[in-house]
Amino acid sequence: VQLVESGGGLVQPGGSLRLSCAASGFTFSKYRMSWVRQAPGKERELVASITNGITDYASSVKGRFTITRENAKNTVYLQMNSLKAEDTAVYFCKARLWTEYWGQGTQVTVSS
Questions:
Q1: pLDDT in tens, the chain (112 residues)
Q2: HSE-up of 35 (CA within 13 Å, CB side)?
Q3: By C-alpha distance, which of 44, 83, 46, 85 is closest to 63?
Q4: How many CB atoms lie within 10 A of CB 99?
């Protein structure tokens, strides 16, 4: 099983980034896919989830972030717009059904 995130980096406040998570080793389409972030000194925060086309978002990102998935490509995405300094964190991809799988994370830094 592998979850490999990409797309992180340094961006100015107000900018955008698109994260990708490529999955392998399990039946991707059956799993609830989520993005979770962790900022330094803070607990992990569930940012967004998607299952069967139904999406959920943390209130802190609603209206700015969009989660989508392409089951044919075993990939989930997180489009992040209007980024703020407080969005700075390591972003993890998570798959959940009867068990959980996690990626290694990708760093997102929002700074001028």
A1: 999 999 999 999 999 999 999 999 999 999 999 999 999 999 999 999 999 889 999 999 999 999 999 999 999 999 999 999 999 999 999 999 999 999 999 999 999 9
A2: 33
A3: 83
A4: 9
Distances (CA, A) of 31 to 68, 75, 89: 13, 11, 24
The first and second tokens of residue 39, run together, are 């900022």
Q: Which amino acid is at 20?
A: S
| Size of the chain in residues | 112
Structure tokens at 2: 């592998």
DSSP annotation string for 63-96: TTEEEEEEGGGTEEEEEE-S--GGG-EEEEEEEE
- Distance between CA 76 and CA 71 in Å, rounded? 8
Angle 66-111-23 from CA coordinates, rounded to 5°: 40
